[in-house]
Amino acid sequence: MDESTISVQLMRRSESSSASSRSIESWLEIVEPSFDPAAVAPQSEDAHLAQTPPRGRSIKRKRSSMSPPPGSGVPRRALSPAKRPRLDSVAAADDDDEEALGSSSRLSVLTGSSRRLSTAPSLTASAAASTRRSTSPTKNVQDLLYFQKPVRYVEMRDNALEQLPEDVRELYTEMYKIGQLESFIPAEVRPDVRAIVGETYFRGRWFKEPATTLSPEQAFVAASARKLVASGQRTAKPTTPEGFALCELDTLRDIEEAARHSSSTSASEAAWNTRVHVPLLVHATTGFRAVHVEPATTAQIARGAMPPTTRNDGRDVSQGKMIDIAVVLRPGADTPLAAAIHAALGAMPPAGIGPDSSFESVNQTMYTPLRFCPTAVSVETKTLSADVEAGRVQLGVWVAAWHRRMEAFRTPASAGVSIVTLPLLLITGHDWKLMFACDRGDAIDIVGGVDIGNTSGLVDLYRLVAVLRAVARWVQGPYARWMEELFLG
C-alpha cells in the first residue's frame, strides 16, 4: 500500500471521528437543559422523602440512566433495574397513579428505547411523591379529625369514670386499685422478691393472701397438665399455687433480662416484640381459653374498611397504618358465637360483586389469623419516645377502620347501640400505657393513657401482668357479651 493511499484512509478516519464527536456534543446540548435526574433515578423505599436539591449545587449526570443519540455509534449501556417498591398496604398495590408511572419506566427498560429525551415537562419523583402524599392525609393526630367519624385524643381527667362508658368502668376501677401497689404479687414468692429487691425497697402490702385454691385460669392450665400425666407423658406445667407462683417468677425475671438487653443494645422494634412484648402478653393471658395473642405486623387494613374522610373518599388514608399485636377473642369452634360469625361472613356477597364492605373477615383486615377472631385489644409498639406521635396515629386509624367494620354488621335493631369500648396499648421501650377508644356516636374519643407498668423492674412487671389479666377477664366478659349481642341478637 503506497503512502498516498494510507494518507487518504487516515484523513477519512479523522473526519469520521470528528463527526461522531460533533454528534455527541450536539446531543448533550439538547439534553442537558431538560435533564432531571429525579425523573430517571431508580425509586427507592424512601423516594417519597425526595427533595429538590438546593440551587447552586451541581448535579452530576448519571450516564447509565441516559440513552445515547441515534447514530452516534456509541454502544448503549443497560439501565439499572429500579428497586421493587415495598407493599406497605393493600391500597399501595392498587395505586393507579403509581402503577401508571411504574409501567412507563418498565417499558423503557424492557424495550431499550433510545428516543431523544423530550424537553416537555415530566412527572418527576418529587411530583409523584406529592401525589402520594395528597391521598394519605393522616400524618399526625390532628389529621384524624378529618375522618367522617373523627378520632379525638382526650386527656384523662381527675374523675376518669365520668369520661368512660359503662362497659369499662369496672375494668378501670380494678386497674386503679392495682396501681395503688396493693395485693398484686403472689404470697408464695414473698421471700424470693424480698431477696431480689432488697430490704430498702421491699413492701409487705404488695402481696396477696396465701392461695388455698387455684384461680380459674390456673385450674385450666393444671387440668391440661393432669391430662398429659394421665396419658403417660411428662410435663413441667405447674399444678399447685406455689408451682404457678415460682414458674411465673422465673418467666418474669427472664423477660426483665430480655428487656434490659433490648434497651441497652438499642434493639429494633421487631426484636422488642419478639423477645419482650409478645412473650409477656402470652404469659399474662395464659389460661384464658378464649383470649389469644396474635402478632399482626402484616395485618393490612382491607380496602372496604378504610375510614372515609371529609377530604376524599378515604381509600388511601390508612396506607401503612398497621398495628403490631392484636389480643383477640377466639370463641370455641362449637360455640354459638363462632357459628354466628361464620354465618354472617358467609352471607356477604363475594368480593368484587357486593359493596366494598363485602369481604370475609370479622375485623378490618383479611389477615388470616384475624378473620374469625374479633380484635379486643390493639397494641402498637415503638422503641423511642420520639415515635409516640406516629404510634397514636396508627392506633387512631386502626380503631376508625374497626368501627367502620362493626357498622357493616349492624342490624336495624342495633343501629342505635354504642360500639363496645376498645382498650388500646401503646408501648414505648419499657413503658406500657393503656387507653380507651370510646364510641360517642358521631366521633371516637381515645381517653388516656394510663401508666400500667413497665419491664425495667420485677415489681413493675408484676403490676403490669396484674393489669393485663384484668383486661383479659374483661375480654371474656363484657367484650364477649357485646359480640354475642351483635351477631346473635
Automatic annotation (TrEMBL):
Q: Which domain of life is it from?
A: Eukaryota
The record ties this protein, via Pfam families, to: PDDEXK_12
Segments forming domain PD-(D/E)XK nuclease-like:
244-479
Query: Do you know which InterPro entries this protein is assigned to?
Result: PDDEXK_12
Extract the ranges annotated as region (Disordered). Answer: 1-23, 38-138
Name assigned to this protein: PD-(D/E)XK nuclease-like domain-containing protein
Taking the record's annotation, the residue ranges forming a coiled coil are: none
What is the scientific name of the source organism?
Coniochaeta hoffmannii
Biased segments, Low complexity type: 101-138
